[in-house]
Amino acid sequence: MATFNLFNDASSVMTVVSFITFSGILWWTFMSRRSADFDEAAQLPFADDDDAQAVDHIDQTEKHHG
Question: What are phi and psi of 31, to 5 degrees?
Fold first, then answer.
């Protein structure tokens, strides 16, 4: 019976800790100071496309030099 109470108490504590962690993540995400960081991070997938196109363009111009 003591083991069951221990697991029951641990479960309650983990529920509270998880809720506090979740609330902290939400608070950190929706802070107004973070919007510039998230806007910059949202553009990262498109930055690779520009670099890849530049490399393709360089490869194509080097083929014509030779």
Answer: -70, 140
What are the backbone angles phi and psi of residue 37, rounded to the nearest 5°?
-65, -40
What 3 state SS string does the chain have? Answer: CHHHHHHHHHHHHHHHHHHHHHHHHHHHHCCHHHHHHHHHHHCHHHHHHHHHHHHHHHHHHHHCCC
More confident residue, 54 or 5: 5
Q: What percent of the chain is modeled with pLDDT above 70?
A: 64
Residue 23: the pLDDT is 96
Give the count of alpha carbons within 13 A of 20, CB side only.
Answer: 6
Q: What is d(CA 55, CA 49) in angstroms, rounded to the nearest whole number? A: 10
**Is the pLDDT higher at 32 or at 55?**
32
